[in-house]
Automatic annotation (TrEMBL), chain A:
The keyword Magnesium does not apply. This is Branched-chain amino acid ABC transporter permease. Pfam families: BPD_transp_2. It comes from Salinarimonas soli. Signal peptide: none annotated.
TrEMBL record, chain B:
Residues 6-247 form the ABC transporter domain. PANTHER family: ABC TRANSPORTER ATP-BINDING PROTEIN (PTHR45772:SF2), CONSERVED COMPONENT OF ABC TRANSPORTER FOR NATURAL AMINO ACIDS-RELATED (PTHR45772). It comes from the Bacteria. Keywords: ATP-binding, Nucleotide-binding, Transport. It comes from Salinarimonas soli. The keyword Cell membrane does not apply. This is ABC transporter ATP-binding protein. CDD domains: ABC_Mj1267_LivG_branched.
Automatic annotation (TrEMBL), chain D:
Pfam families: ABC_tran (PF00005). Residues 2-232 form the ABC transporter domain. SUPFAM superfamilies: P-loop containing nucleoside triphosphate hydrolases (SSF52540). InterPro entries: AAA+_ATPase, ABC_transporter-like_ATP-bd, ABC_transporter-like_CS, BCAA_Transport_ATP-bd_LivF, P-loop_NTPase. Gene3D superfamilies: P-loop containing nucleotide triphosphate hydrolases (3.40.50.300). This is ABC transporter ATP-binding protein. Belongs to the ABC transporter superfamily. It comes from Salinarimonas soli. PROSITE patterns: ABC_TRANSPORTER_1, ABC_TRANSPORTER_2. SMART domains: AAA. GO terms for molecular function: ATP binding; ATP hydrolysis activity; branched-chain amino acid transmembrane transporter activity.
From TrEMBL, chain E:
Its main location: membrane. The chain crosses the membrane at residues 6-31, 66-85, 97-122, 142-162, 191-214, 226-256, 277-296. It comes from the Bacteria. Pfam families: BPD_transp_2. It comes from Salinarimonas soli. This is Branched-chain amino acid ABC transporter permease.
C-alpha cells in the first residue's frame, strides 16, 4: 500500500466544490434579497417588495420540496396542499377572530405536519411514479374539500381582515416589515435544510435515495427517515402557506391546485435539484420571468415554454448547472 | 447441534409453481467458513435473501444466535449481527467509498435521527470506516465516488461495508465474480484473514477458492441440500460431481 | 386639461376563460378609441395585465398597477375569486376598483367599500331573473344544474329567491366538467317543467350542444344565466337557438348608442359583443364622465362622488348606482337567435325587473 | 474477416485505448486477454459501436464500420454477449431470445429449439421474466440471445462469469462445436487454461495497447507472457 | 334511481372510460414502455381535436376531417419527437417533466394564437347523429356508441401489438436497455420514434373523436392528462390491459358516483346532509379510488414485473 493509503482524518472529507462556489452563490442570493428593498426604494417600492416577497414565499415552498425531491427522490405532486393548509389555517382562524400570528402559525405548522404524517405514511408504501400519483390524489382530495367549504368562501376564497397580529399589534402590516419577516423565514428554512441535509439524518435520506435495499442491508429502515423528511418538508411548506395568506391577505383553493404542485416541481428542477439554493434561484427565475415576459406580450407562454425546453436540453442540472455552481 | 450460530429449519420459498428453496435445513457453526455451492438457479442467492430478510420465507424457521429471526426485517437482523454482500454489486454509487462504509458504521453507533451536525465530518465514523477500507485494500481509494471504482474494487467495497456492520455472521454472495486473477487472489487473502474472526457463509462458483477456504461445504441442487461435509468429502461425492462439479474438479 | 389619466385593466387573458377577458378589453379599448384616446378630455394610458385566474398572481400584479404604474383606476376583474383577492390591495391604496363583470355578494352588503364599484351587476341578479321568469310562467317543477363551486352554489340560491315551486333536483357537476351525458339522462328521467342552469364558458358550450343532441331542447325549456351568450354562441351555434337566459342587456337592445356600439364592435373585432364588452365599454364612459367633472384626480372624494353620480349614457339605458356601489338597472329575459347575416346573438324577449337593486344593498353602511 | 487497426477510445477526458490492432480471420477463435481494467470491454464496445472511438479503423469483411451506429454493425454480422449479462428484464426468456432474432445471412443455423437444446435450463424457465432468472441462467440467456442473431462473428465478453463449473465446461464445449461448424469467435474470459486448447490465437491487452500476440502454441511455450501480463 | 337511468349512466361511464383509455393507452405506451414521462400527451389530445375541427371545417365532412387529422397528428408527434423528445429518453424523469411542461405551455398558447381563445364548433357527423333504441324505451346517442366501438377496437389492436408482436417485445426491451437492443441489430431510435408517433396519434384520435360532443378549446387536455395518469397508475404502468380496465373503472366510478353518491348517502344521512356530502365527495371519488388501490396494491392492478 502506498503512502496515501491511510490519510489523516482531517483529509477524510468527501471532495467538495471549492468553498467559494459552495458558499458564494447562496451568500450572493441572500445578499441580493437583503439589499433589494434599498434598490426598490427608487421605484415602485410596494410592488417590487410584493413581487420579491412572493418569490421568497415560493422559494420556501420549493426548497421544502427540494428536501424530499432532490435528496430523497420523493417526488410529491401534491405539495401545494401544504400551501393551502398553511393559508387556510390563517384564513379560518382569522374568520373566527383569532388573528394572533403565533396561534395561526402553530396551527398552520401543526396541521401541515399532521397531514404530512398521515398521507406520507400511506404514500410511502408506493414508489416512483406511484408515489407521485398518490400524493396527487391526497392533494386533490384536499383541494376539493376546500372548494366545498362554503362557510369559508368555497372556490371564491376568503379575504382576511388584516395580516396576522404579532403580540396583538399589526407589526407585519408594512411592506418592509413583512418583507424582512419573510426573508428571515427563508434564511431560517435554508439554514435548517442545509443542516439537515449534511446531518446524519440527511445522509441516510440521501443514501436511501441511491439504494434503499443497500441501506436496509446495513441496518437502516429507510421508511422512517423518508417519512420524517416528508413531514419536515410538509411543515416548512405549511409555513410558506402561512406567509402566502398573509402576503395576499386572501385565501383560496387556487393555492392548492395540481397545477400549482406541478409548478413547484418545475421550479425545483429549473433551479437545479438537490442544492436548496437552486430552489430559491428557480423560484426567482420562474416568477420573475413570468412577470417580465407577460409584460411584453399576451402570448408570453410561447416564449416561456420553449425557454424551459432549452434549459433542459442544453443546461443539465438546471440554472445552477448552467452557472457551473452545482455540487453535492 | 446446540452450538450452531445460524440454524435453518425446513426453509421453503416458491415463486409460483417453482420451488426455489425446498425444505432447507442447515447448521452453521460459530467461527467456521461454510461454503454453499450448487448449479446456477439452485436457489443459493434466494437462500441468502431469505436469511438476510430481503425475501420472506414461505415456511420454516431461521434461528440466529439462538433467537428466532424469521419474522424480523432486514434492518433488525443487521442490528443483531447478520450482514450480507450482494451477488450483483449493490453500493451507493454517488457516495464516496468512505461514505459508503461510514454509513454502515453510523447505522450502529448512536441515533441517526440527528438533524444537526455535519455527518461527513464525524471523526469517529470516518476513522472506523477507514480501517475497514484498509482491510480490503481500498484505503487509497477512499474519496473516489464509488460508482467510478472498477468492478473488482466495488466487490471489495461491498465486503468492507458488510464488515462495518460488525457482524457475527457474514453472508457473501459470489464475492469473486468478475474479479480477475490478481484481484481474486487478493479477495481470497482477505477472506482468509477474516476467517476465524467471523462466521462466514460463502457462495462461490470458483472451486479453487471454495476448496481452499471452506471448513465445510453444503451443496444445493434444485433447492435441496444434497450434501454437507468437509471439502474433500464433498468433492468426492459422486452425486455432487454429477450435478455440479463435472470433471473439472477431478 | 390636466395630466394624463392612467387606467389599469386586470382581466383573465389566459387559460380557457380568456375569451371573457378579451371581450372586456376590446370593449374598453373601443370606447377609449371612440373618444379619441381620451377620458374626460385628458390623455389616457391603458395598461392591460393578465391575472391568469390565479389570486396570488393577481395580488402582485395589481400592486404593480397601483404602485409602479400609479394608475388612477383599476378596471377588473372577470372572476369573483380574483375580485376577492385584489379588492383589498386596490381599495386600501385609495385607488378605485371598477368591476366590468364580477359582482360578488361580499362586497355588496356589509363588505361594501366606497372605492369599489360594480359596473356590471350583483352576481345573483341574472339568476334571479331566471327564477322570476320560472315563477311567472308557472313552472311547478324545476331541475337545477350547476358546476360544483361557489359561484354555482350562489347561482342556485339566486334562482330560488323568486322561484317558489318545487326543485326536483339540484345537480352539481365538477367544475370544468365537459360531458353532461349522465346529467342529461338524469334530467330526462326526472321530467321537470323546466331546467335552470349556470354553466359558464366551455361547460356551457358542451351542455347546450349535448342538450340539443339528446333531443331535450324542444321538450324542456332551458333557462340559464351566463351559459348562452355572445362568448359561447359562436361555438354553440344552432344548438342554442331558442334557449333562454337572464341578462341586463342584449346586443339588440333598441337604443341608438347601443346600435352604434354593436356595429362598431363588430366592425372592429369581427365578433358580436357580449355583456363583458358592454360593461367594459360602459366603464370607460363612466370614467370619462367622472374625469370630466373633477379637476384634480387626487381629490378622491370628488372622484368618488363623480363616479357615484353615474352621469353617462349607459348602453343599457337606465343606469344608476345604489349606495353600495352596485347598479340599479333593468333586467331582461333574453333568447338566443340567429341573425339574418348568419351570426348568433341573444335577443330581448321581455323585461323582467325594472330599476332593480340587489338584495344585499340594505346591509351596506357606507363609511364615508 | 475483422480487422481492427490503431483503435483509440476515451471516456470523457480519460483515454483508455491507445493503440489496439489485431484481426480475426474466418473460422478462427481469438481471445482477448488482460487483467482487470486493461480495456478489453472497451475494445469490444468500440468495435460494436456502443462507444465512439476517436481514432483507428474497424473493418469487417471489407466494410469499414467505425462511426456506424451499433445496429448497422450488428446487422453486418457481429453478435455480442455483453459483460454483465444485460438480459432484458421485462421480457420473458423466450421473448428475450426471439425479439432480436434474425437470419440475415442465409438459412439460420440457430433457432429456438437449437438454443433450448444447448441450454435445457432455459427451456424450463422459458416464460420467466429475465429479471427472475438466477445469475447463471441470465448468462446462458445472453449467449442464446446472441446466437439467435446468427452472427458471422460471435463476441463473448466474460460469458462464463458466475457459471457453475459444469455449465462453464458446457459453454466451452459449445464453443468448440461452434468452431467446428466454422463459426468465428472473439472471446474474453478469465479462465485462460480452458481457452488455450480452444483458441487459435491470443491477443493480450495491457493498459490500452496490444502487449503480446501469438498462437496457442506460442502462449503455451512462453510462460513469461502469462506471468507478465496475466499474473497467472 | 330507475334501472333505465342506471343502464344509461353505466353506458355513459363506459363511454367516458373509453375516451380515457384512448388517451391513457398512448401514455402508458410511451411512459410505461419507453419510461418517458410525457406531460405533453394531453396537448397532443388537444391538437388532435383542433386538427379535426380545422379539417372538418375545411372539408365540410367530419369523416374526411378525421382521416386528415390522424396522419397530421402522427406527423406532429414525429416532429415533436425529433425536435425535442428523443433528446430526453436517457434523461431523468424530472428533466422530462420540465421539458414537456414547457411544451404544454407553448402549445396551449399556440392553439390560442392560431385559432383564437373561443371554443370551436364541430358538428356531429350526419350518419352518426341521433339516437337508437338499445332496449325498449332506452335511447342512446349513436355517436357515443361509435366511440365505444372505436375504443374497443383500438384496445384489442394495442393488446395484440404490444404483447404478441416482435415490435412490442423490442419496444419493451428497448425501454430497459436501448444500447443492448441496438447492439443486437435493431434500430431502436426509429422504433421509439414510431412508438411515440403512434402514441401521439392515439391521443389525437381521442381528441378528434370527442370534438363533436365536447367543445374544442385551449387547455382542454390538461385535466384529462391528469385523469390519464390516474388511469395508468391504477392499471399498472406499462400495462395496456391494466389501462383498459382502470379506464373503465375510473369512468364508471366517476359517472355513477356523480349520479348516485347523494342517493346512496341518503340511506345513512338526512337528505340535506346527504346531498351536501355527496357533492363534496363526488369529485374526490376517483382520487379516493386511486389512493385505496395503491394502498393495497402499491404498483397498481396489473404491475408489469421488472
Ligand atoms: N422473483 C422471482 N420470481 C420468479 N422466479 C425467480 C425469482 N427470483 C429467482 N427466481 C428463480 O429462482 C431460481 C433460483 O434463483 P437464485 O438466484 O437463488 O439461484 P442461484 O442459486 O443463486 O444461482 P446462480 O448461481 O446462477 O446465481 C432461479 O431458477 C430463478 O429463475
Ligand atoms: N463508463 C466509464 N467511465 C469512465 N471510465 C471507464 C468506464 N468504463 C470503464 N472505464 C475505465 O476504462 C478502463 C478499461 O475498462 P474495461 O472495462 O475496458 O476493462 P476490461 O479489460 O474489460 O476489465 P475487466 O476484466 O474488469 O472487465 C478501466 O480503467 C475502467 O476504469
Ligand atoms: Mg446467485
Ligand atoms: Mg470487461
Amino acid at each position: 500500500m502506498n503512502e496515501i493509503a491511510t490519510p489523516s482524518p482531517a483529509a477524510l472529507d468527501v471532495p467538495r466544490a471549492p468553498a467559494l462556489r459552495r458558499y458564494g452563490v447562496p451568500v450572493l442570493v441572500f445578499a441580493a434579497f437583503a439589499l433589494a428593498p434599498i434598490a426598490a426604494a427608487q421605484g415602485a417600492e410596494g410592488y417590487i417588495l410584493s413581487l420579491l416577497t412572493r418569490v421568497m414565499i415560493f422559494a420556501i415552498a420549493a426548497m421544502s420540496l427540494d428536501l424530499i425531491l432532490g435528496y430523497g427522490a420523493l417526488v410529491s405532486f401534491g405539495h401545494a396542499a401544504f400551501l393551502g393548509i398553511g393559508a387556510y389555517a390563517v384564513g379560518i382562524l382569522a374568520s373566527h377572530g383569532i388573528e394572533s400570528a403565533l396561534v395561526q402559525l402553530l396551527a398552520a405548522l401543526g396541521a401541515s405536519a399532521l397531514f404530512a404524517l398521515v398521507t406520507g405514511a400511506i404514500s410511502m408504501r408506493t414508489k416512483g411514479v406511484y408515489f407521485i400519483m398518490i400524493t396527487l390524489a391526497f392533494g386533490q382530495m384536499l383541494y376539493f374539500l376546500a372548494t366545498s367549504l362554503s362557510a369559508y368562501g368555497g372556490d371564491d376564497g376568503l379575504t382576511l381582515p388584516s395580516r396576522s397580529l404579532l403580540f396583538g399589534a399589526n407589526l407585519l402590516k408594512g411592506d418592509h416589515a413583512f418583507y424582512y419577516a419573510v426573508l428571515g423565514c427563508l434564511l431560517g428554512c435554508y439554514l435548517l435544510c442545509r443542516s439537515v441535509v449534511a446531518s446524519r439524518f440527511g445522509r441516510v435520506l440521501r443514501g436511501a435515495k441511491e439504494n434503499a435495499v443497500r441501506m436496509q442491508a446495513i441496518g437502516f429502515a429507510p421508511y422512517r427517515f423518508q417519512l420524517g423528511a416528508y413531514v419536515l418538508a410538509g411543515t416548512l411548506c405549511g409555513l410558506a402557506g402561512f406567509l402566502l395568506a398573509n402576503q395576499t391577505e386572501f385565501v383560496s383553493p387556487a393555492y392548492m391546485t395540481w397545477q400549482r404542485s406541478g409548478e413547484l416541481i418545475v421550479v425545483v428542477v429549473l433551479g437545479g435539484l438537490a442544492s436548496l439554493h437552486g430552489a430559491i434561484i428557480g423560484a426567482a427565475a420562474f416568477l420573475l420571468l413570468e412577470e417580465v415576459l407577460s409584460g411584453y406580450t399576451e402570448h408570453w407562454k410561447m416564449i416561456f415554454g420553449p425557454l424551459l425546453v432549452l434549459v433542459v436540453l442544453y443546461a443539465r442540472g438546471g440554472i445552477l448547472g448552467m452557472m457551473g455552481g452545482r455540487h453535492g | 447441534m446446540a452450538d450452531a450460530i445460524l440454524r435453518l429449519e425446513g426453509l421453503r420459498k416458491a415463486y409460483g409453481a417453482l420451488k426455489v428453496t425446498d425444505d432447507v435445513t442447515l447448521d452453521v457453526r460459530p467461527g467456521e467458513l461454510h461454503a454453499i455451492i450448487g448449479p446456477n438457479g439452485a436457489g443459493k442467492t434466494t437462500l441468502i435473501h431469505q436469511v438476510s430478510g430481503l425475501a420472506a420465507s414461505d415456511s420454516g424457521r431461521i434461528l440466529f444466535d439462538s433467537a428466532d429471526v424469521t419474522r424480523l426485517t432486514m434492518a433488525q437482523r443487521v442490528h443483531r449481527g447478520l450482514a450480507r454482500s450482494f451477488q450483483i454489486t449493490s453500493i451507493l454509487p454517488g457516495f464516496s467509498a468512505l461514505e459508503n462504509v461510514a454509513l454502515a458504521v453510523q447505522a450502529r453507533s448512536g441515533s441517526s435521527f440527528r438533524l444537526f451536525g455535519d455527518a461527513s465530518r464525524e471523526r469517529g465514523l470516518n476513522e472506523e470506516a477507514m480501517s475497514y477500507l484498509a482491510q480490503v485494500g481500498l484505503g487509497h481509494r477512499a474519496i473516489i465516488p464509488s460508482g467510478q471504482l472498477s468492478h473488482g474494487e466495488k466487490r471489495g467495497l461491498e465486503l468492507a461495508i458488510a464488515l462495518a456492520t460488525r457482524p457475527m455472521l457474514l453472508l457473501l454472495d459470489e464475492p469473486l465474480a468478475g474479479t480477475g486473477h490478481e484481484e481474486s487472489e487478493r479477495v481470497v487473502e482477505t477472506l482468509r484473514g477474516l476467517k476465524g474472526r467471523y462466521t462466514i457463509v460463502l457462495i462461490e462458483h470458483d472451486m479453487n477458492a471454495v476448496f481452499s477456504l471452506a471448513d465445510r461445504v453444503s451443496v444445493l441442487v434444485y433447492g435441496r441440500v444434497i450434501a454437507t461435509g468437509r471439502p474433500d468429502e464433498v468433492r468426492a461425492n459422486p452425486e455432487v460431481r454429477a450435478a455440479y462439479l463435472g470433471e473439472e474438479a477431478a | 386639461q390636466g395630466e394624463k389619466v392612467r387606467v389599469g385593466l386586470m382581466l383573465t387573458l389566459s387559460g380557457p376563460s380568456a375569451v371573457l377577458g378579451q371581450q372586456a378589453r376590446d370593449g374598453f379599448n373601443l370606447a377609449v378609441k371612440e373618444m379619441g384616446g381620451k377620458l374626460g378630455g385628458r390623455e389616457v394610458e391603458v395598461i392591460v395585465v393578465d391575472d391568469e385566474l390565479k389570486p396570488d398572481v393577481a395580488v402582485t400584479k395589481v400592486k404593480g398597477l397601483v404602485e409602479r404604474d400609479k394608475v388612477d383606476f383599476v378596471v377588473g376583474p372577470i372572476f369573483s375569486n380574483v375580485a376577492g383577492a385584489i379588492h383589498k390591495p386596490v381599495t386600501d391604496a385609495g385607488v378605485f376598483l371598477l368591476s366590468p363583470n364580477a359582482g360578488p355578494s361580499v362586497f355588496a352588503g356589509k363588505g361594501c367599500n366606497p372605492n369599489f364599484f360594480a359596473v356590471s351587476y350583483q352576481n345573483d341578479q341574472n339568476h334571479e331573473v331566471a327564477g322570476k321568469v320560472a315563477q311567472n310562467r308557472g313552472y311547478k317543477r324545476v331541475y337545477l344544474l350547476t358546476p360544483n363551486y361557489q359561484a354555482g352554489r350562489d347561482a342556485m340560491a339566486g334562482f330560488k329567491r323568486h322561484f317558489k315551486g318545487e326543485i326536483v333536483e339540484e345537480s352539481y357537476v365538477p367544475l370544468n366538467n365537459l360531458d353532461f351525458q349522465s346529467e342529461l339522462a338524469k334530467l330526462a328521467a326526472a321530467q321537470p317543467d323546466a331546467v335552470f342552469t349556470f354553466m359558464p364558458g366551455g361547460m356551457g358550450v358542451n351542455l347546450v350542444r349535448q342538450y340539443r343532441q339528446a333531443g331535450l331542447a324542444d321538450k324542456i325549456p332551458f333557462l340559464s344565466a351566463f351559459t348562452v351568450d355572445e362568448s359561447t354562441l359562436p361555438a354553440q351555434q344552432d344548438a342554442a337557438i331558442g334557449m333562454l337566459g337572464g341578462s341586463n342587456w342584449a346586443p339588440n337592445l333598441d337604443t341608438p348608442q347601443n346600435k352604434a356600439f354593436v356595429a362598431a364592435y363588430e366592425k372592429e373585432f369581427n365578433a358580436v359583443p357580449g355583456s363583458y364588452s358592454m360593461h367594459a365599454y360602459d366603464t370607460a364612459k363612466l370614467l370619462d364622465s367622472a374625469v370630466k367633472s373633477v379637476k384634480d384626480l387626487s381629490d378622491k372624494k370628488a372622484v368618488r362622488e363623480a363616479i357615484a353620480k353615474a352621469d353617462f349614457q349607459s348602453l343599457r339605458g337606465d343606469f344608476k348606482f345604489g349606495a353600495n356601489g352596485f347598479p340599479v338597472q333593468d333586467f331582461y329575459l333574453v333568447k338566443a337567435a340567429k341573425r339574418p347575416d348568419g351570426k348568433f346573438q341573444t335577443e330581448i324577449v321581455e323585461k323582467v325587473f325594472d330599476d332593480y337593486a340587489d338584495a344585499y344593498a340594505k346591509d351596506c353602511k357606507p363609511a364615508s | 474477416m475483422l480487422t481492427v487497426s490503431n483503435l483509440q477510445t476515451s471516456y470523457g477526458p480519460a483515454k483508455v485505448l491507445f493503440d489496439i490492432s489485431f484481426e480475426v480471420r474466418a473460422g478462427e477463435v481469438v481471445t482477448l486477454l488482460g487483467r482487470n481494467g486493461m480495456g478489453k470491454t472497451t475494445t469490444v464496445g468500440s468495435i460494436m459501436g456502443l462507444l465512439r472511438p476517436h481514432g483507428g479503423e474497424v473493418v469487417f469483411e471489407g466494410r469499414p464500420l467505425r462511426g456506424q451506429p451499433a445496429y448497422r454493425i450488428a446487422q453486418a454480422g457481429l453478435g455480442l454477449v455483453p459483460e454483465g449479462r444485460q438480459v432484458f428484464p421485462t421480457l420473458t426468456v423466450e421473448e428475450n431470445l426471439v425479439a432480436t432474432a434474425a437470419a440475415r445471412h442465409g438459412a439460420p443455423r440457430w433457432t429456438l429449439p437449437r438454443v433450448y437444446e444447448l441450454f435445457p435450463r432455459l427451456k424450463e424457465r422459458r416464460s420467466n421474466l429475465g429479471s427472475q432468472l438466477s445469475g447463471g441462467e441470465q448468462q446462458m440467456l445472453a449467449v442464446g440471445r446472441a446466437l439467435m442473431t446468427n452472427p458471422k462473428l460471435l463476441i463473448l465478453d466474460e460469458a462464463t462469469e458466475g457459471l457453475a463449473p459444469l455449465i462453464r465446461a458446457e459453454i466451452w464445449d459449445c464453443l468448440r462445436r461452434l468452431k467446428g461448424d466454422g463459426q468465428s469467435i472473439l472471446v474474453i474470459d478469465k479462465t485462460i487454461d480452458a481457452l488455450i486448447p480452444l483458441a487459435d490465437r491470443h491477443v493480450v491487452i495491457e493498459k490500452g495497447r496490444v502487449a503480446w500476440m501469438g498462437t496457442s502454441a506460442e502462449l503455451a511455450a512462453d510462460p513469461s507472457v502469462k506471468d507478465r501480463f496475466l499474473h497467472v | 334511481m330507475s334501472t333505465t337511468l342506471l343502464i344509461i349512466q353505466t353506458l355513459n361511464g363506459l363511454q367516458f372510460g373509453i375516451i380515457l383509455f384512448l388517451i391513457a393507452a398512448g401514455l402508458t405506451l410511451v411512459f410505461g414502455v419507453m419510461d418517458f414521462i410525457n406531460l405533453a400527451h394531453g396537448v397532443q389530445y388537444m391538437v388532435g381535436a383542433y386538427l379535426a375541427a380545422a379539417f372538418t371545417a375545411m372539408t365540410g365532412n367530419f369523416g374526411l376531417g378525421l382521416l386528415l387529422a390522424l396522419p397530421t397528428a402522427l406527423a406532429f408527434g414525429l416532429v415533436l419527437e425529433v425536435l425535442i423528445f428523443r433528446h430526453l429518453y436517457d434523461r431523468d424523469h424530472l428533466d422530462q417533466v420540465l421539458a414537456t411542461f414547457g411544451v404544454i405551455l407553448f402549445l396551449n398558447q399556440a392553439v390560442k394564437f392560431v385559432w383564437g381563445a373561443a371554443p370551436l364548433f364541430v358538428p356531429v357527423p350526419e350518419i352518426l347523429s341521433g339516437s337508437i333504441e338499445i332496449a325498449p324505451g332506452l335511447l342512446y346517442p349513436v355517436y357515443r356508441l361509435a366511440i365505444i366501438a372505436a375504443g374497443l377496437g383500438v384496445a384489442a389492436l394495442l393488446y395484440g401489438l404490444v404483447n404478441h408482436t416482435r415490435a412490442g417485445m423490442l419496444v419493451r426491451a428497448g425501454a430497459t436497455n436501448a444500447p443492448m437492443v441496438s447492439a443486437l441489430g435493431v434500430d431502436i431510435r426509429r422504433l421509439f420514434m414510431l412508438v411515440f408517433g403512434f402514441g401521439a396519434m392515439l391521443a389525437g384520435f381521442a381528441g378528434a373523436m370527442v370534438a363533436p360532443i365536447l367543445s374544442v378549446e385551449p387547455g382542454m387536455g390538461d385535466n384529462l392528462l391528469i385523469l390519464a395518469f390516474v388511469v395508468i397508475v391504477i392499471g399498472g404502468i406499462g400495462s395496456v390491459r391494466g389501462a383498459f380496465i382502470a379506464a373503465l373503472a375510473v369512468g364508471l366510478v366517476d359517472t355513477l358516483g356523480r349520479s348516485f353518491a347523494s342517493n346512496i348517502l341518503r340511506l345513512f344521512l338526512d337528505s340535506g346532509a346527504a346531498s351536501q356530502t355527496g357533492r363534496a365527495l363526488a369529485p374526490m371519488l376517483i382520487y379516493i379510488l386511486m389512493a385505496a388501490i395503491l394502498f393495497f396494491r402499491p404498483s397498481g392492478l396489473f404491475p408489469v414485473r421488472r
